[in-house]
Design a protein that fits this description.
The complex is a heterodimer of chains A (437) and B (316). Chain A is of the alpha/beta class. Chain A contains 18 helices and six strands. Chain A has two domains: 49-172, 3-Layer(aba) Sandwich (D-Maltodextrin-Binding Protein, domain 2); 196-436, no CATH class. In chain A, the strands form two sheets. A four-stranded mixed beta sheet of chain A has the order 2-1-3-4, sandwiched between helices. Chain A has a two-stranded antiparallel sheet with strand order 5-6. Classes of the chains: A alpha/beta (437), B alpha/beta (316).
Chain lengths: 437, 316
Amino acid sequence: MKKIFSVVRREFVERVRTRAFLISTLLLPVFMVAVFLLPILMSGTSRTSRVAIVDGSSAAVGAQIAGMLQQERLGDKPAAEPRYSVQVFPATEGQLAAVRDGLVAKTGFGRGHQAEQWTGVLVLTDATLASGKLAYYGGNVGGLEAMSKLQRTLSRALATWRLGKSGVDPQLVARATAPADLQTIKVEDGKLAGQSGEQSFMLAYAMGFILYIAVLIYGQQTMTSVVEEKNSRIMEVLASSLTPFQMLLGKVLGVGAAGLAQMAIWGGSAVLLSSQRGPLGMLFGMNPSTLQSLPIPSMSASVLVVFLLYFLLGFLLYGALYAAIGAMCNSIQETQQYALFVTMFILVGFFAMFSVIRDPNSTLGMAMSLVPFFAPFVMPVRWSMTTVPPLELAISLGLMVVGLLACTWLAGRIYRTGILMYGKKPSWREVWRWIRA
Amino acid sequence: MTSPSVRITTVTKRFSGHVAVNRLSLEVFAGGIFGLLGPNGAGKSTTIRLIMGILEPDEGSISLFGLPDGSRKLSARIGYLPEERGLYKKMQVLDHLVFLGETKGISRHDARIRARAWLERLGIADWAQKKVEDLSKGMQQKVQFAGALLHEPELVILDEPFSGLDPVNAQVMKDIVVAIAAEGRTVLFSTHVMEQAERMCDHIAIIARGATVVSGAVAQVKADFGGRHVALGFTHDKERATAILADRTLVASIDDYGASAQLQLAEGADPQALLAALVHERVGLRHFELVEPSLQSIFIAKVGADAAVARAEVSA
């Protein structure tokens, strides 16, 4: 026991002392902040689109559509910039193609030539009014959000026009088609959790992401450090005084402790930053109210406990597997093809998380939170987003522990033989023999 | 003390068809310096790894201090310097030694004190706070040597301890090894340099192709081999001696170095008769001495040309 502790301490201290640890500790929060802030900064700088409407319809519906487009704003406030600046070009059926092509020729350039260029060209015909079919030519058609906004506005405009033609009061139409404003509030055990749906989504997403990154990075670090020990031939000295199991456990725990320490630093600074975000935002010349409205989630104690439990179990499980792979190989390059199998499990778990975020109570989500390889990614997310029955959590944790023991046993068997094997890399059949031996 | 420190009983170890150690038996008694000698590929390192429990024997048994426990349980009583030297490159020298001490079960505090003392003794105290990778190869070897001895083990096992050292450092290491033995502790070391073993060891085992060729106290090994060896030094007319040296009634075997030769007298041959014959033929002699056989000559006589093929032999 004392020896395992020495190995853990060495592993932890030597890891935390490295420059790589310092840099990654500092850089990830910067990266995360950038990921959070960039969309806000970018949306603040989005501009009014210049849209040309080629009106080939006999009912001259272009002006009406232009009017509705011009009412759209870039933000929620009435004082915000208009989303579109629109100009209508009436055209007869014969001229239509020529007018359209003339305008299209001036479309789709960069931002430099704003004044005389068009962001997009909308073409209306009589068919538009009958079937709803119309064409939009633009350089920004890949922007999904911009296109869906445009489509929504156009649908509303067409509906208003059609209803108006049937004699319905346009005021009534406007009131009738006003969009629903849905506010989501999470409920936990019959009580309000003080989280909006958006916050709980952000929290789940952030947790899943951190688990994925941490397990992948620290798992792989375990693997490379075993390979390094093999290459530096220190393994033989260690093997003469420590059992392979002590070495394996010490290494995985030591690397895991370094990982936890790093996350504690990140978590601590995140709490500090979010509590001080007002004054900090001012430093960067940002409006404090914008920052206060940022959906920075608060984490309840139970979510934190579940998160840490699954991180620990998940990391130990994957760490042991990665260590076993390190023991099988002689160089970092060699590890890649074996590591792929383990990395696959992590990836499947990570991608399953996205579908679980969308529907936390799905059968897929429930099934995956029972598989030890995927539970660490799926379960904390479900726990934060929905109400998971305690029994289900207990079963999941139980299976997790069983899976962990099985993987550690397996890794220990491979480790025992692998660490002192040099030269050619083993075939799967040989590895199987090591396990059975 | 009744039970030997190391007892190897008819141990066999195979590696994918190649027999590295073949029904080897060996006993190392407490106290003194034991030399494990043999050519490259004879199975010295494999034998040591078997003793250390790093490899498991396919057949036979190994016991340490007369106990059935493996060497890992007894690791607090054993110090080990493997042939392949290895340290954590990024660790500081002192931290590394403390860690090695801890893995042997001594406390951090003690380990620190002893590590400093060892670094002082080996003349590398100034390097205590440097990273291992900043040290020269020789210094790294000293650090590892200290790591193997830090916990004051009663059995010290050194695999090729002097290889790769300059003469000055080899001398420092040799003095330490001798000092350990003088304290009543046991040293077992392997080498392929016979002269070194001859000067340091009181017991030896020569192995070739995984099997013991000869073993025992050095004096006994030499006595058993026969003391009738003659060292010759020539000044001129060496070719006149050719016929005499080829005479199998006088000379059993010859180790010819050109200007000198070491030869073993044939059974019942009289050294005086050899000298008389050489003088009679007017061979220019600078040196004629009756000597006890060197381990080198015993080694060559016992192992002979077989040693050369020891490495290449792989059974199908």
